[in-house]
Task: structure prediction
Amino acid sequence: MSASTHAASAHEGARPMFARIALIGIGLIGSSISHAVRRAGLADEIVGSSATAATRQKSIELGLVTAVFDNAADAVAGADLVILCAPVGAYAAIARDIGPRLAPGAIVTDVGSVKAAVVRDVAPHIPAAVHFVPGHPIAGTEQSGPESGFAELFDNRWCILTPSADTDPAATARLKLFWERLGSDVEVMTAEHHDLVLAITSHVPHLIAFNIVNTAAHLARVTDSEVIKFSAGGFRDFTRIAASDPTMWRDVFLNNKEAVLEMLGRFTEDLVELQRAIRFGDGDTLHRQFSDARSLRRGIIKAGQDTAAPDFGRGRAAGADVAGVSEEAVKRG
Ligand code: NAP
Result:
């Protein structure tokens, strides 16, 4: 059921775009949306749902929502914008629960890191009078929970929308404006294209980080603390990426299987080429490959998606889904 207080107003002057926004899941992304919505005055009211009492309590204390429910169906009643902010593996059950309670004319969107599986799981439960426009803000940190959000998370980051061919263009345009007012640039593409691009720019890099950290962890038993002591040699950056939420990432890989396997296959082939170059002392190949990689990094900086600071972005409040190697390649330019 619900706790309900009036901790904060979502409307600070400007004309709000929505009367009532419902956040289903109030973690890093949900809480950041709340901060950014209130900063821009985009809603009269923000409500939320979470199954965990501690999250509900924290959300009220932090003023993220004015009312919070322990189930999604109660939270969406009367909302004109519903944003699914839970791990994507939970979406099918959430969509089934909220379907009958959605208000006619409402927009349902999400922030999930995969898109084709979200369309598959959610679309069948959305009534004809409700607009479903899937989305994915390419912004995040390795932190989780309602305390981890901040209003600037989406500033100058891309948000990708993946409406289907029969989505009402007016609903897509309204959601595009919403994300722009949260600080993002918006691009529209198909769900399948999104999944392919994100497989190489975010999903495979995370998989590599999880794997290399575990490989080193096994070695650490042999070499005592040397892995930690000398981690600034590059390993440290992988550990930050690998600290990302395990549930979220489990669901990403279970739900973007084909695109990840395709990109992992290409990655493995390229890795074998490097392995052969090292084995046979082929310095030309190594130099060419490293030069190509370096120029891609320069392209990201030129596009304004990271700074040239020598700390590889360390010290900044937020990055993309991972450090500089993550989803940057889909940014402008
Ligand atoms: P988070 O901080 O872990 O928050 C997840 C929220 O979902 C929590 O409120 C949690 O509730 C709720 N939740 C978990 N399991 C649920 C279930 N089975 N049913 C209903 N609610 C459930 O995660 P996040 O980083 O905000 O990620 C949320 C979504 O954003 C994911 O779909 C992810 O793919 C996407 N995303 C993440 C990033 C990123 O960098 N983190 C970037 C872009 C997009 P409790 O607190 O009650 O457990």
